[in-house]
Write a structure and sequence with these properties.
By secondary structure, the protein is mainly alpha-helical. It has six helices and no strands.
Length: about 170
Amino acid sequence: MPTVAFVLMGVFSLILEATVLQAFQVAGVKPDLLLIFLCFYALSRGTWRGALLGAIYGLMEDIYLSRFLGMNGLIKMLVGYGVGWGRDKLNLENPLVPVIVIWLATVGSGLLFLLLAPLGGLYYPWGLSLVKTIFPISLYNASLAFLGQSLKREGKEWLANRRNLGG
């Protein structure tokens, strides 16, 4: 999928997160669709493209939702680079690998935010943030990634069967 499509998916994701996903909160949190799409993109395109899309997504998020321009851009850029770095080192044929990567990326993103927040004058309790926000979001993101991987696999099988039947 072209990079432009991923940027448009990011814009659509921001709108969804601010509107529709408010009704789908679980344990008081909603998924980070930008992070999920970023991880899938970085796994397919590598470090520098992952870092670039991460910076774009993070800056979009900063402009749309945040008070501190650049913090989410830096965090998502680092996550995109890190996930892209694992591209050649992981067995991407295993459908659980992206799910685990997204879980780890979500936890890593949350920890980076907790580390950088004091630079912007924000102070969050680490223990409470991990238990009430970071771990629930990471599980939500991983669950959506698992669902996405399952749909992708089923779609590929359906297309292959359709081609074999001549339809």
